[in-house]
Amino acid sequence: MSDHASAIRGLPRWHPNPHIRSAIETIRRDGWQVTAVDAGRECPFAYTAGMVLHDIPDLAVYGLDPQTGPALLNELADLLHQHDWRTLVCARAEISTGAFYDPVRLIEIIDKDDLLMANLLFPDTPALQVVWPDENGHYPWHDEYTLLPLHQPVKGIDDAGDPYLSPPRVITPSSGLDRT
Prior knowledge:
Mean pLDDT: 85
Strand content: 15-25%
Oligomer: single chain
Distance between the termini: 26 Å
Helix content: 10-25%
Largest sheet: 6 strands, mixed
């Protein structure tokens, strides 16, 4: 994870709630925290807190198990230190990772109420949703998408109607030539 010592100056040093205090300590030590939420919910999800300290929006993913979701978010968080998130969102880039078997896309979140720790520590900061395709490679905004909304709620929008967007790109964590 990247050096974030200068960025954490605005982060509180202590909080009376032990869960919040633990999150603050994790963010100070590791640069961000990933929280997985599964108990008693129809759709499990995971999200980050503290990415804004690196000028990167926090990330959220819905519908993945409590091991895969955090692993995917950590890998994407590392990747977003190397690639501009705005470019990836605008280009509708498909991002391949080692943590998930299909390429994923990033969309801007409109409804970030579920990201409790991120909202508490960093209110009014942007967030991105990591969206994964169904078994046929279709995303929720495609007519052919086969999963129900409860499998992967979409909390943002895919701005595919923007006339300035180039064709989708594919980003991989591999180094070397651009594999677009």
